Amino acid sequence: xxxxxxxxxxxxxxxxxxxSQCGEKMxxxxxxxxxxxCVHCGHSVDLDHYGFENDEEYEKLYPTREEVLGSEEKEN
Length: 76
What we know:
By secondary structure, the chain is of the alpha+beta class. Helices cover 34% and strands 17% of the residues. It has helices spanning 6-14, 56-61, 65-75; strands spanning 17-18, 25-28, 35-38, 44-46. Strands 1-2-3-4 form a 4-stranded antiparallel β-sheet. The protein is globular, with a radius of gyration of 15 Å.
């Protein structure tokens, strides 16, 4: 079992990343190579989340910041 999904593995080997929003080429934002940005539409994604963007199973694993902050506000 790999910690990377199939889309990540394929992209790491080919060094070509495709935007999930428009299908165009994505490039790294800076020299740290941790954020991908679409050259066409401007959509960005953290490299760790690439390939999981529209995956409901993955989304269920980690709450959003808003969900965390919303639950904290209810407790206070």
